[in-house]
Amino acid sequence: MPDASLIKDCEDFLLVPSTPESKAAFLAVRTAGSLFGAVSQNDENTNHLISRCLAKIFDGSDGSLLLQSKELSNILPNAAQHWCEAIRTVVLEALGRFLKDDAGVEIAVRHGWAPLFYSSLQDSSSRVVQIVSNALVETSKTQAGTAAFLQAPQMVLTLEKLLSTPNSVIRVRVLSVLGRMSASSTPAQSLIAKTPFHKVLTSELSSDDVLNRLSVLEIVNDMSASDVNPKSLHACLQAAQDDPLQFGSVMETCAKFLSKVGTSSIELSRLFESTCFRVLSSFQADLDAKQVTLGAMCDLFVSTNGRDVFKSSVPKLLKLLGEEIVSTTESLRVGAMVVVTKILAVGLGSSQDHDACKDVMESAMPRMMSCALSPSMNDHMNSMKLFTAMSTTSWGIRLLLHQQGFPEFAVNRGMESSKEGLEQKYELVQALLANKETTFAVRIGLCSQL
Q: What angle do CA 110, 113, 117 make, to 5 degrees?
């Protein structure tokens, strides 16, 4: 049976303002130890009530002081491993707030709370794991946190033990946290490099467990290029060629990696290039594979490094993209327009590339014009973005101004029904005016729209 007096005391406490006085008055009647002891396996409602009271007690600067009191600091390690998830969540959330600055980290270390965070990565609750993961990432942003959690011998041993556990779920959780910590600061990155992190990461990328590989690929996406082994990504891309479950994640990861390193990873860049051509030129490739490939290419063409992957084959690539632009499938058509827009934004390399792009866009202009006039916002917006990118080139401005209906389209703001459409039309007009090859008559019409 629930303790009626406990329930009344808790409910009354939750109704009063959160002040040091109200907390002291409540704790004079119900000590923190008695609250933890009152949690029952048979009464979830009472457990929820107690966890809310504890959260209120721990909140604020006065709550932080209470956590450091002799009574609470001694029982918190056990409370952080309490069988009740709600209690573990409240306690670790409160302790995690100490890890946001050097002073708080020093308090956590002094009271012996630091080891709780790594050990709680083994928790069965995803909510608890998320709380401790976020708290650990915060430690990598401070000098004291980096020293306490990545340099202290006891913590390094704990990390090594967790990374060598036979439980693959735990290993991936620890890899995820260390990957985020590494991305947060240079000191953390150099310390993590001294742990078995990279060895285990490479091993997991070669794992037979597909779900593990996909989880590790997400970690790799957020890491710096110097922390990733390109041979592992090459092996992953090879294994994913005919596996739709892996293909999307692997292509995305490889594209982001190559956008940072370009062709310095020769084998990977060649395999990525050949994979893109295989999928885009295949009549048998399914819709998802083509969408994934176009999406990966969007991730690639964010830098000249990414463009260099296709340095010797841009004309061939543009021809395939032009075929997709005139496709009857909207998602492929839009995806191809986005990729060409990004290629133009990052810059075409040689005169041959410019000539190839001109020829492809000339063939696709009637289709793009119909997309611009389409009721589909996807078609409409992305064709305008491509027109804007084309307006920066001499051949592009000539194609646009000679396309039937384009000058009238460019000056007609009345056809835009959304804020985004009006803004994109404005950008298009500005780009046209910025190009010296825009004729005087067209300039007069355009200026009236600004």
A: 140
> For the segment 307-353, what is each residue's pLDDT rounded down to a tens digit?
889 888 989 999 999 999 988 889 999 999 999 999 998 888 788 88
Q: What is the largest CA-CA distance in the chain?
A: 87
Q: How far is CA 239 from CA 133, 251, 287, 314, 338, in A?
A: 30, 11, 20, 26, 28
Query: In whole angstroms, what is the distance from residue 407 CA to residue 430 CA?
Result: 13
3-state helix, strand, coil in the chain (%, to 5): 80, 0, 20
What is the identity of the amino acid at 31?
A: T
* DSSP for residue 148: I
Distances (CA, A) of 83 to 7, 80, 125: 21, 9, 11
Alpha carbon 196 to chain centroid distance? Answer: 24
Q: Which residues contact 151 (CB under 8 A, 6 or more apart)?
A: 191
Cα–Cα nearest to 111, from 85, 75, 86, 61: 75
Closest CA to 406 of 361, 436, 450, 359: 361
Above 50 in pLDDT, residue 450?
no
- Cβ proximity of 54 and 91 under 8 Å: yes
* 320 and 280 Cβ atoms separated by less than 8 Å: yes
On the CB side of 190, CA atoms within 13 Å amount to 3
Residue position matching structure tokens 């056809």: 415
How many residues are recorded in the chain? 450
Residues 194-248 have pLDDT tens digits of 888 888 888 888 777 778 778 888 887 777 666 677 888 888 888 888 888 888 8
Cα Rg of the chain (Å, integer): 29
Q: Which long-range contacts (CB under 8 A, 24 or more apart) does 371-379 make?
A: 371/333, 371/337, 372/409, 373/405, 373/409, 376/330, 377/418, 377/421, 378/330, 378/334, 379/330, 379/333, 379/334
Answer yes or no: are the C-beta atoms of 248 and 287 closer than 8 Å: no
Give the number of other CB atoms < 10 A from CB of residue 233.
23
Rounded CA-CA distance 205/198 in Å is 11
Q: Which pTM value belongs to this model?
A: 0.70
Two structure tokens written together for 250: 């692997």
Output b/e per residue, 47-64; b: 16+ Cβ within 10 A. bebbbbbbbbbbbeebbb
Query: Which residues does 328 contact at the CB level (< 8 Å), separation at least 6?
Result: none
Is the C-alpha dihedral spanning 256, 260, 261, 262 positive or negative? positive
Here the tokens at position 111 are 């009271």
pLDDT at 448 over 70: no
Residue 381 · residue 341 · CB < 8 Å: no
